[in-house]
Amino acid sequence: MGLKQHTERLRQRLLDLSRGQKRAITMFADMMVLPLAVWLAFYLRLGEPLHLFFTIHWWLVLAIPPIGIACFAVSGLYNMVARYIGPRAIYDVFRAAALTTLAFVAVVEIMRLEPFPRSVYAIFLGVVFLLNGGMRLLARSWFQSFLSKPRGRQPVAIYGAGRAGAQLANTLVADGEFHAHLFIDDDPRLQGQVIGGLKVYAPDDLPALITRCELRHVLLAMPSVPRARRQAIVKSLESLAVHVKTLPDMADIVSGRARVEQIQDIDVDDLLGRGTVASDDELINAALTGRSVMITGAGGSIGSELARQAMAREPARLVLFDHSEFLLYRIDRELRKAAAIAEQDVEIVALLGSVTDQRRMEAVFRAYDVEVLYHAAAYKHVPLVETNALEGIRNNALATRCVAEAACNAGVRDMVLVSTDKAVHPHNVMGATKRLAELSLQSLANARRGPTRFAIVRFGNVLNSSGSVVPLFRDQIRHGGPVTVTDPEVTRYFMSIREASALVIQAGAMAEGGEVFVLDMGEPVQIVELARRMIRLSGFSVRDEANPDGDIAIDFIGLRPGEKLHEDLFYGEEIRSTAHPMIMQTVEPSVAWPALQTQLDALQLAVDAFDYGQATRLLCEAIRSSSMDSVAYDRLAQRLESSLLEMQPPQRPH
Question: Which residues cross the membrane (predicted)?
Fold first, then answer.
């Protein structure tokens, strides 16, 4: 076995030692260095290796090291991990050297060693600092040169040589499935420089570097750059055969929900090209600050983000309501941790329960003096609600009526319903139930049965929500495909969860009663193009007729029952602008509350009796009564009647 192999084995054995054993070795090394420092201080001052003055006071070589070890321990040097020593360690070593020098002075003064050359102290300080600091830096370099070797880990390029990139590179040295190979940065001042042992290249060099260095991954380390710039970078990387990953957004890092060194899949916001939305802080603060705020469905995708954003505005109380114990526990724990970090004095209340229980809802509203209510609880998965129509009607439509009436009875000031574009000309049960929920709030607002101001906020799909195609596509790509798309022509509106939640809060703050607000979703996105971009940014190629040797295929599985090629956001054409450029108001006719109340009562009886046929017929009739949905009613009712026939058991012969 050669010297190199012996060295590698020695380093590995040292790394495998316990923390106490490593501390003992460090103390022993310091005990060897400190006597040398005492002798060097006298030698450099007096000019002779064994000057008469030194031979008289030779015992200092033995007395000072134990005192120095105690000073080092007090200064915290033995709590450092050698391979992670950073710039702050230099200050700590200097402080320890200074404390040891003061102890040296004290010994000389106590022992009255006169005459004593005072310059020895300064020389001793410098020698201790250089020897002990240098020894630790050498140990760090020695261990990191061992740990930074790939050892089967995948080489990556870090795009962004700033502080976040350097921190990520240091993190990858000791842990993770990747090892940093080089930096990419578009700042000409950094190109050609070496940062943390890694060279910085220009973006134009990346295609050649991918081939030469066998790079399969590019990590974007630019959490604070404007989204438009990130989108441009992502687009430039799309044609390259690399898997693009990114660090969390700066907003998540600042809030404590993520750390700088966390690596995740590319943010789909960067794929879709949507810019950030400016928030009207005055409007949001007026709606939330100092108020008792409640969110139903608080554990869900939208509900949890509403809770986070409400928490940031320091309400007096935040009531989280959900029927899922696990989801409620998770968001409650997250918010309590965030409140502790930010030292926020917000009362957080987590309540289990069902929004279908009107007595429970009214009791909660009264007990916690709820002023602002965001109703985000709903079943959202189209296929599941389609096959569980009665539960969809109960939870989405009838529960909204329960919550709204309870809010009126308890004197809740504002109630905001989170709705969906699938409520416009609904072709499926989920959309029809959300349309009926909208009608309930509109009718109650017009009837003015209580002090509550009702508002409806309607928008399309939110990225990375539980019902979004994005997590499905990611999972399919991770398993090698195929990626399933319903139809080559299908399009959907998309918006980030954070953006949608911020706009919901602002729209609700504008409400005067009964408005239907619609969020500006931008241009609809072609789902097949979204799938192609996600495949390419995962480092794979699309397998199709033009590229039969590609990695991952896209399969078209056909539209599911009740699914539309294109979604709508509005009924009619009367659309008004609001004070916010991303929020519009649509003017839509509603149904008189007494008539709708009768229909809802009949629907409740049908659902309680498990009468699928009667319940679905009443659902269709209720949405048709708004005079806006005759086409949707005919198509949906016909399809539901057909499904009812399929559900009938075959007749047995007599």
Answer: 24-44, 56-81, 119-139
Question: Taking the model in full, what pTM does it have?
Answer: 0.68
**In this structure, are residues 465 and 494 in contact, taking their beta carbons and an 8 Å threshold?**
no
How many helices and strands in the chain, by DSSP H and E? 25, 23
DSSP 328-367: HHHHHHHHHHHHHHHT---EEEEEE--TT-HHHHHHHHHH
**Are the C-beta atoms of 254 and 332 separated by less than 8 Å?**
no
| Single-letter amino acid code for the residue at 449 | R
Lookup: tokens for 244? 């693009």
* Tens digits of residue pLDDT in 449-485: 778 999 999 988 777 666 678 778 888 888 888 999 9
Q: Could you count the other beta carbons within 10 Å of the beta carbon of residue 513?
A: 15
The 3-state DSSP class for residue 49 equals coil
Place of tokens 């008792």: 292
Q: What is the mean pLDDT of residues 578-607?
A: 89
What is the secondary structure of 377-412 as a DSSP string?
-----HHHHHHTHHHHIIIIIIHHHHHHHHHHHHT-
In the chain, the amino acid numbered 260 is: V
Nearest to 234 by CA among 534, 547, 480, 491: 534
Maximum distance among all Cα pairs of the chain, rounded to whole angstroms: 126
Domains and their CATH numbers in the chain: 3-147 (no CATH), 154-266 (3.40.50.720), 281-637 (3.40.50.720)
The interaxial angle of helices 593-608 and 429-447, nearest 10 deg, is 140
For residue 30, is pLDDT > 80?
no
What proportion of the chain, given as a percentage, has pLDDT over 70?
78
Q: How far is CA 530 from the centre of its chain?
A: 21
The C-alpha R_g of the chain, in whole angstroms, comes to 34
CB 491 within 8 A of CB 527: yes
CA dihedral over 214, 550, 229, 466, signed as positive or negative: negative
pLDDT tens figures, 379-431? 988 889 988 999 999 999 999 999 999 999 999 999 999 999 888 888 889 99
Q: What one-letter code names the amino acid at 337? A: K
Query: Which residues are CB-contacts of 58 (< 8 A; sequence separation ≥ 6)?
Result: none
For helices 497-510 and 281-288, give the axis angle rounded to 10 degrees. 70
Residue 621 backbone phi and psi in degrees, to 5: -65, -35
User: In angstroms, how far is CA 537 from the centroid of its own chain?
Assistant: 19
Judge whether 120 and 44 are in contact, CB under 8 Å. no
pLDDT value at residue 81: 56
Nearest-CA neighbor of 476 among 422, 539, 417, 553? 553
Mean pLDDT of 95-116: 73
